[in-house]
């Protein structure tokens, strides 16, 4: 009877996944909970699930996945969700580009094989990485037997167009000083040289 119940529940979950549409939602306050997102989104459709991951987006904002059922027009739903304001935050909604992969049904026999192969990998990893340490990573040295991707020590900063500031620099002077103590009266020195 237990196996029949499990299959019945899995089929209900599969049916829900088939008839539902997921929406990616971002730009909401830090203190906002899944319940809050559920309430504001439920005005525009029937919400069946809200998931807020612990990690943040590339721009440092929190995001959520909201699953709706009985969606006739997904584009219209997203347009409506884009009109929502939570406090001073304007909600951004987009369709989910990639659905979550289905969970595999593991029988006890397959599960035992997976666990044993995992344990073999752990044993191999222990033997291979025992000499590695945090100091080796910081110094950039690789201990013997450790093979991994090379990580560049050079920092990279990627900025988009919103970070570009356009200013009139025709009246600006740039240079360097030999003595740090001359910085305090630099304006006076520049004025004496004829710059105003």
UniProtKB/TrEMBL annotation:
Key word Transit peptide present: no
A Pfam family that the UniProt record links to this protein: RRM_1
Entry GO MF terms: RNA binding
Domain RRM: 21-103
Domain of life, source organism: Eukaryota
Gene Ontology annotations for the cellular component aspect, listed alphabetically: spliceosomal complex
Keyword Transferase set for record: no
Gene Ontology BP annotations: mRNA processing; RNA splicing
Transmembrane segments: none
Record key words, sorted: mRNA processing, mRNA splicing, RNA-binding, Spliceosome
Protein name: RRM domain-containing protein
